[in-house]
Amino acid sequence: MAIKHKITQATYVVTGASRGIGKAIAHNLAARGADLILISRDKKSLAATAAEIQAKHAGRAVATLSCDLADRKAIEKTCAEIKKKHRALAGIINNAGYARPGYFHELPADEFEKAISTDYLGAVHLTRGLHDLVIKGGLISFTSSVVGFMGVFGYSSYAGAKFALIGFAETLRQELFARGIQISVLCPPDTATPGYETENKTKPYETAALSESAKLMTAEAVAEKYIRGVTKGKFIINCNFESAMLYRLHGIWPSLVFSIMSGMIRKAQKKKSQ
Predict the structure, then answer these.
(1) Backbone angles phi, psi at 154, to 5 degrees
(2) For residue 5, is it within any domain?
(3) Catalytic residue at 162?
(4) Total domain count, the chain
(5) Alpha carbon 161 to chain centroid distance?
(6) Has residue 1 been placed in a domain?
C-alpha cells in the first residue's frame, strides 16, 4: 500500500538547492504554494536562487542555510538551527550530490570516501537530524540516479554511493510506514546541469560514448517528473521511458543489460583504438 504525499503550503527542506535539479524542484514546490528551507554550500548561488523564487512566487517564505553535507558536524548544526524555528516539516528532499567519472584504477582512493560522504552519508545524517519533524503524510525523498540501480562504466565511486542510498531508502520506507511518511527516490538520467558539465571534463571515452546514446533531460523536466511521481506515491521515480525500461529489465534480466552495455563499450573501445 503506497503512501501518497500531497504538496502543501507547509515547509520543505531541499538540499543541493542552489542549482540544477535541486533548484528546479524548489521552484516547482514554490509554484504549488510551499515554503522552503534551501541548503547548499554556495552561499552566493543559494541567495540568488532564493531571490528568484521570491520574485517569481510572491508570498512564499524562503530561508537559506549554507552547509557542507560532507561534514557531519556542520549538518548537526544546521539541523539544530532548523529546529529552533520549526516544529514541523512537510518534507525533506535530499538532493545534494556530485559525481566524478573516471577509470576505476585512476581515481584517487579518497574519491570513493568523498562520494560516500557527500552522496550518501550527507543524506543519512540530515534525515537523522530532521525526520522527527516530518508530519504524518509527509515526505522524505532522495536523489539517486539511473547509476543507483545499474552500474555504468566510469562511475565506480558514484555508483557505490547511489546504490547505498536506495538501500537506505528501502529500509526507511519500512520503518517509517507506520508514521504515514512517504519515501521516494528520484533516479534521473543524464540531465543538463552545471554538475553534468563538470562530469564531462573527466569522463572516460567509453562513458562519453554511452552518454551520446541518451537524450539529455532538462532540470525542469526532471523536477516535474519528480513532483508527479511523489503525488502518485511512487517509491522509485524514473524520468523517461528509457530509464523506466532499464529499471525493469535490469531487475528481471540483468545479464541481458550487461550484454547490451558491454557491446556498446566494446564498440566505443574499437573506435577509440582506430
Answers:
(1) 95, -5
(2) no
(3) yes
(4) 1
(5) 11
(6) no
Domain presence at residue 6: no
Cell of residue 152, nine digits: 555504468
- The three cell numbers of residue 102 are 573516471
**Alpha-carbon distance 260 to 226, whole Å?**
28
Of these residues, 158, 211, 226, 234, which one is catalytic?
A: 158
The tens digit of pLDDT for each residue in 222-266 reads 999 999 999 999 999 999 999 999 999 999 999 999 999 999 999
Establish whether 225 is a catalytic residue.
no
Residue 29 CA to residue 227 CA, distance in Å, equals 8
Active-site residue, from 18, 120, 162, 225 = 162
Q: Of the residues 18, 40, 141, 144, which is catalytic?
A: 144
Give per-residue pLDDT as tens, 34-77.
Answer: 999 999 999 999 999 999 999 999 889 999 999 999 999 999 99
Residue 29 included in any domain: yes
Indicate if 43 belongs to the active site: no
Cβ(29)–Cβ(36) below 8 Å: yes
